[in-house]
Specification:
Largest sheet: 2 strands, parallel
Shape: elongated
Oligomer: single chain
Structural class: mainly alpha
Strand order of the largest sheet: 1-2
Strand content: 5-15%
Radius of gyration: 20 Å
Number of helices: 6
Length: about 160
């Protein structure tokens, strides 16, 4: 049984085909291998949990190792769609400051300090993923009600 990789990994894989050839092969690499010696990763996800990222991190670590690059670390952000919402800009100022610190640390020190990494992993919303889900459900219920829709599939009573 073949289970395809998540879309994000598939997309990243498509971007790297010309660089590394087939996974596991020793195909010659382009000049990129000699001109880059490190990689850092920043990813966002709409879902509120961090458990959507480990496979992507492992892929990038593998990719870096294959190319002989040093993997510096990552900034992962669940519930990331909220960061672009105008109404939350002041609320998330603390998070943007941590991202700037992390970027500066990656450039100057080649790593993100543990205390900054801990801050980056804090929930954006008080109450954590459950509060995020409740707010999302409230929003969609209100939006659907505006259009006379219910949360029930067509033909289902109630």
């Amino acid at each position: 049984m073949h289970i395809p990789p998540p879309g994000v990994v598939r997309n990243a894989s498509n971007l790297t085909k010309g660089l590394v050839g087939q996974v596991g092969s020793e195909a010659p690499l382009t000049d990129l291998k000699s001109s880059v010696n490190w990689v850092a990763q920043a990813e966002a996800c709409g879902f509120p949990e961090f458990n959507h990222f480990p496979l992507l991190v492992q892929y990038f670590q593998f990719f870096a190792q294959k190319l002989g690059w040093r993997y510096l670390g990552e900034i992962m952000r669940p519930a990331g769609d909220s960061l672009s919402d105008e109404q939350y800009q002041e609320t998330f100022a603390w998070y943007y400051n941590l991202v700037r610190q992390a970027g500066e640390q990656l450039i100057r020190q080649g790593r993100i300090a543990p205390e900054v990494q801990t801050g980056l992993r804090q929930d954006l919303f008080p109450g954590g993923p459950e509060a995020f889900r409740e707010e999302a459900n409230r929003y969609w219920s209100e939006t659907m009600a505006k259009f006379g829709l219910t949360g029930k599939p067509p033909g289902q009573a109630g």
